[in-house]
Amino acid sequence: MVPSESRAYRSDLRAQQAAQTRARILAAAADLFATQGYQATTMAAIARSAGVSTETVKAAASKAELLLAAFETSFSGTEAAGSLAETEAGAGLEDAPDAVFLDAVLGRIAEANARAHALWTVLLGAALSDQVVRAALDGMLARRHADFRMLVAELARRGLARASDDAVADELSFVLSPEGYQQLVAQSGWTYERYLAWLGERVRATVA
Question: How many whole angstroms separate alpha carbon 143 and alpha carbon 71?
């Protein structure tokens, strides 16, 4: 009879290997989707880039699911989180002192936009023809709006913004979107530092 400790070790090892394989697949998918687009990226190409078989990629997720997971992990470091606060990108922000809280939030969001803006553009395009992506995008946008409502409420609680307001949350969602990074940095050639400074100016003007 195999000791329970040995079975647990093998089970943990398999789980670790599976997680590493999935991470390679998502990294390969993210790179190919961002550089080649949704339609041109094949499961076979993702498999070659990840160093696994096409069957392994297909077993991991559908093409639409890979795009969604690739964006989520690129943006926040976490798949299928209910809110930004539950992700690597949002970890620890609630503990930041009032004096640095807003700058800390803006820095995390700016970094996330820098990582994932190209995939966000691909996701928006894919949603036009893929119903799975469309439905997931609708959910992402709803969660994003909820995140910004919570942010405005937290800023108001800390005395850093006027009373919580849905219209303010709508404005912040627009200003802090990946589309803004795409247009200002990727397309217009702004430096990251200029973009981050602009975010601070616009957000403070919005919540004042």
Answer: 15
Please give the CATH architecture assigned to the domain spanning 1-60. Answer: Orthogonal Bundle (1.10)
First CA to last CA across the chain, in angstroms?
68
Q: Where are the domains of the chain?
A: 1-60, 62-207
CA distance 181 to 161: 24
Q: pLDDT digit string (tens) for 72-111?
A: 999 998 887 778 888 888 889 999 999 999 999 999 999 9
User: Under 8 Å CB-to-CB from 119, ≥6 apart: which residues?
Assistant: 30, 33, 34, 67, 70, 71, 74, 75
Q: For 8-37, what is the mean pLDDT?
A: 88
Q: Give the pTM.
A: 0.87
